[in-house]
Amino acid sequence: MTNPESPMVTALKLKRKSRQLEITFDTGETFQLSCEMLRVYSPSAEVHGHGNPVLVTHKKNVNIKELTPVGNYAVKITFDDGHDTGLFSWQILHGLATNQVELWENYLARLRAAKASREPLIDMAVKYHK
């Protein structure tokens, strides 16, 4: 489940307006992770592509819809885009939090290389005239 040396999460606070998840560990450390970063680095097979990570795009405005505790070792995050298949263990959350600057820069570089965007896709209402 978790590495014994991995800190335990003691508090999760969702800040919907700023699209941030505040995570406090038993070490006393508190981090803010953006919902977008959590979404694009989801530990799900859908994102990790069974060893070949998929570049997740258009998630700048994604938010968290629900947090569901899984035992005392992880949280299931349901995002407002419907994604809900990754289990974020305390070890994964701590790794994302402590490496977020490097991970974010890596993500932005991958977007640039793929000529992809963080910007959300625009919903369009199309009306057909007869």
From TrEMBL:
Highest taxon listed in the record's lineage: Bacteria
MF-aspect GO terms: metal ion binding
Domain Gamma-butyrobetaine hydroxylase-like N-terminal: 13-94
InterPro entries to which the protein is assigned, alphabetical: GBBH-like_N, GBBH-like_N_sf
Keywords of the record: Iron, Metal-binding
Protein name: DUF971 domain-containing protein
